[in-house]
Input
Amino acid sequence: MLNRCVWANSSELLKKYHDEEWGNPLYDDNKLFEMLILEIMSCGLSWEIILKKRKYIRTAFDYFCPETISNYEQEKIDNLMKDHKIVRNKQKIIATIQNAKAYLLIREKQTFSDFLWKYVNYYPVSNNTSTLITRNEISDKLSNDLKKVGFKFVGSIIIYSFMQAIGMINDHDNNCPFK
Output
């Protein structure tokens, strides 16, 4: 049996996500946007719920195309609120639309990847601790800077989790082979 991070052992879905995605450095702008939106959707929910709904969320949100999402109008919001296969939280849906607009503002000047990865000097930060960390100075700064551009629902804890998911921060357990 693989000695992976403790949180990943509770289901096959989490094991697969841990082994194939979580913590792997990600640089693709569209995928980064998707992961940010999924992290926002997961606030107050388990990550496993988001993984189960992921394919439906992708479809409902036009495969996370920021240009399309930024133009959503009330009819689309109403339809999303009726879709029982996704996370039906109006604040999160509105935040996703606003975040698509903010994302496009960043993309006018640089890639989203460069915007994000500069906070860790383009190299993953590896933590060697057995203590649960939910935020740090980097996530505080990135959260504040995202808010300045217009992003919503991007508090430091959500951003820290996002940074872990996209490999900016390596928080695999010390005994995990993916460390």
